[in-house]
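Catalogue entry: protein

Sequence with per-residue tokens
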Amino acid sequence: MKILRPNSIAVKLGVIFILLFMVLIISIQAVLYMLFIRFYTDDVLNEQIQRTQRYAEVLSDHFDQPTIQHLLLVESGTDHLLLILDQTGNIRGQSEGFTDLPPQELQQIKEHGSLDHGGPVLKSNWKSEPFFVTEASIAAIGQPLGRVLMFSPTDPIRSAAQTLKNTFFGVAFIVLFLGAAMILLVTRQVVQPLLRMIKITQQISQGKQVTAISAVGNDEIAQLSHAINRMSQNIEFYKQQRKQFLADISHELRTPITYMKGYSEVLIHNLEGSEESRKKYLTLIYDQSNQLQHLIEDLFELAKLEEGTYSFELSKTSLDKVMQNALGMMADSIEKSGIALNYNPSLTPLYVHGDAKRLQQVVINVLDNARKYTLIGGSITVSTLKEETFGVLIISDTGIGIPAEDLPHIWDRLYRVDRSRSRATGGTGIGLSICKEIVTLHQGIIQVESTEGKGTTFFIRIPIFQDTTEEIQTDADCK
């Protein structure tokens, strides 16, 4: 395992855990310590007060030497010491062991005074005093006869307090040990996967091929691992797409440029002297420059769509009017190609929430594709209808169709089912990509069904205009 750095997340989390545990343990220990000392001293003092008072009651009935000696004998087997004084302060009896008590302190206790001034507890500071001292008065028929003083050593409570402190220190040490173990656990379970992810993302940023991160479970770390794996896969996919796109665009640009360069050289060197040949080559140059211009315009338009800078004016739009305008622009070229054109409008007026100009662009693009791939004598049928919350445009042709393996890719940029035929008909391979982007930005759906050799049908669904929908001007951010 790598050496932990002071600013690593494992150390930071470990320190936080240790501090939290220490604060919790210290708080609990402080409360337990105070409660223990309080209950212990209260219990000792209460029991001592009761015993002192019982002895005082016994001596109140029989304040004589045999009774005094009997009480001293009873306490001789305990840790307690008895001191029995008469009314004048003279000692009538005392337990063995008072020799350990400093004479000055004993004299001070003897001269303490009446219960009215001192109360039953004379000394209770277990930290600095060697004994707890309690007293009770001896009286008969209301006349004071003397006092009973009981001494109990404070060593046991000090010993118990020290034991409690040692226990608390042991618990604190265990907490520190657990904190260190927590650092190691966090390092293994959290930090190490994060370090692997950092390494993988650095490799991704450098454009290197990376292996998938293994993820166990379904926690946040595992979810992050899955997200990085998906990101890596997507980046690899887009890298391949980029390479393919660059290769395709290079090929698409090279073809017209090669034609234009070759024909230009023929004209410059006057290799073809007839006017008819010169006109033919100029026409070819013009056609190729036109093709090149369309390709560049389509690429620029697609870039604006993907960047979100393509402007839209969404409003209440008649779907049938969009279709009629598009048919008006395409009818001549379709009929000149020897293809029949049929139009089935919706039975009732059909309005969608869209940009008429952009939707018309989609229809024209699809119609132009249908024209290019439908043979002479074929037909193109256009319909509009309502389907739940969508207005639907259906454009169907009886053309050559699209192979099943090519259907998923027709929306890709520069993808052509038949490259040589597409180039001959003037297509750039970007039109359907633009159509899909425009429909998607309308919150719509574009789909295609095709059978090779029988024809192709496009379904374009645009959300129906709602009366409560305000007309707004927006751009591609509307998605």
Q: What stands out?
A: The first helix runs from residue 9 to 61.
